[in-house]
């Protein structure tokens, strides 16, 4: 049996999407998936609202915090803080291609500085006892394809990093928007497979464009783990089959059961002053492809944002699906 703390199946860090409410929903669907936070910058942790950025429910574990930054001292301090908050892993973002990230000298642009990345990761490792990992692209701009990728990975492996989450698409930092970077240039899974073949002692997790658990099973013939982002967010019930199909365990609950199970959590969060739509926005894809799914989405979209909206809105939306079935 695969260890509970493995990276065999992971959900991706999705900026403005994979917040704590989203992750709580995902954990209801899969007990075995390894969850990742949105990217949080070192500055936000050191100088911002720390509780807002780091708060999570214990049910989300195993949970990794993804950091954005490049200063070794700041990375080490944030890693210490995150360990104190109870995170299971610290992951460094070396894959985000946005202009804002580049101007802050973190994200994909760091692939051009493998030595600087290694210095930061080494500082993080020295500061904590939990695993430190890195998420990166197969390359950037005109960087040599496999040669550049291998050079980057080797530099991190030298300082003790053994888990690499590899987005199988180059990041073009000049001339393409982050949205265009999601489609251009083409994915190249073979480079990631080659990385695992050449460095068998490293744990390699593949990411990028994976749409189904069947595709996950194919990738797992060549690498140690898979990471899904948009597919899991847009069709969250896909996660309900992860434990059974990828870990040989009991399947997760169906969408109706998940809605019923999340109601106490919603009630608790509303009592703390949270707005209903901040939670239900992550639930809109729960019944994708089933009768009544459109009515479920519409009811939540039109009513959850209203002042004073409570769990009755969710129950009403669920009834619309039940009646359709």
TrEMBL record:
It is an enzyme of class 1 (oxidoreductase). It catalyses: 5,6-dihydrouridine(20) in tRNA + NADP(+) = uridine(20) in tRNA + NADPH + H(+); 5,6-dihydrouridine(20) in tRNA + NAD(+) = uridine(20) in tRNA + NADH + H(+); 5,6-dihydrouridine(20a) in tRNA + NADP(+) = uridine(20a) in tRNA + NADPH + H(+); 5,6-dihydrouridine(20a) in tRNA + NAD(+) = uridine(20a) in tRNA + NADH + H(+). Its cofactor is FMN. Keywords: Flavoprotein, FMN, NADP, Oxidoreductase, RNA-binding, tRNA processing, tRNA-binding. InterPro entries: Aldolase_TIM, DUS-like_FMN-bd, DUS_fam, DusA, tRNA_hU_synthase_CS. Its EC number is 1.3.1.91. FMN binds at residues 66, 135, 167, 207-209, 229-230. Residues 12-313 form the DUS-like FMN-binding domain. Pfam families: Dus. The record marks 93, 179, 182, 297 as: Interacts with tRNA. Signal peptide: none annotated. One of its GO terms (molecular function) is tRNA-dihydrouridine20 synthase activity. It comes from the Bacteria. The active site is at residue 96. Catalyzes the synthesis of 5,6-dihydrouridine (D), a modified base found in the D-loop of most tRNAs, via the reduction of the C5-C6 double bond in target uridines. Specifically modifies U20 and U20a in tRNAs. Belongs to the dus family. This is tRNA-dihydrouridine(20/20a) synthase. It comes from Microbulbifer spongiae. The lineage of its organism: Bacteria, Pseudomonadati, Pseudomonadota, Gammaproteobacteria, Cellvibrionales. The gene is dusA.
